[in-house]
Design a protein that fits this description.
Blueprint: E1 3-10, E2 24-27, E3 37-42, E4 47-53, E5 59-67, E6 74-80, E7 88-92, E8 95-100, E9 111-114, E10 128-135, H1 141-152
Antiparallel strand pairs: 1-6, 1-10, 2-3, 2-9, 3-4, 4-5, 6-7, 7-8
């Protein structure tokens, strides 16, 4: 089934916090070990990215080239649509940053983690997060742009 996750996130500065621990995670693993799911994250080097893991296989990660604008809210959105090609897309501030193809089918999502990756427990990123949206619809580029414009103006 298709899924879209998105939020407005801001990393206030370059210091502190743990990178690689999730801004927003939608986990489909029955035991919480994150063998299936979709996520948005930040690298310690200062780049946003989105990832997808299906069937316990390797991670499909996108957009390690979307720089964090420190101290500025940014709209982040990841879309998985198994019927599209490419079927995995990552948008920052309404602009498609990267896309790719992943194989497999995501099972029903069972948990949401905000500010941490579901499988990592109490570790967290130093990120301010608001306006989280999760949908079972594969949102398109026009939605990404209108959502970014609307939410960033708040």
């Amino acid at each position: 089934f298709p899924v879209t996750i998105g939020c407005v996130a801001m990393r206030p500065d370059t210091t502190g916090g743990v990178a690689g621990y999730g801004v927003l995670t939608l986990d489909a693993s029955p035991d919480g070990d994150f063998t299936n799911g979709i996520y948005i994250d930040v690298l310690s080097s200062g780049y946003w990215y989105a990832g997808l893991r299906i069937g316990g296989g390797g991670y499909q990660e996108l957009a390690r080239t979307a720089p964090v604008a420190y101290g500025v809210p940014q709209h982040l959105m990841a879309v998985y649509d198994p019927d599209a090609s490419p079927n995995f897309k990552f948008y920052v501030d309404g602009i498609l940053i990267n896309s790719g193809n992943a194989s497999g089918t995501l099972p029903t999502m069972t948990r949401v983690a905000i500010g941490t990756m579901a499988a990592r427990g109490s570790d967290s990123s130093k990120i301010h997060i608001r306006d989280v949206r999760i949908s079972n619809i594969a949102r398109d580029a026009s939605y990404a742009l209108s959502s970014a414009n609307a939410l960033l103006s708040l």
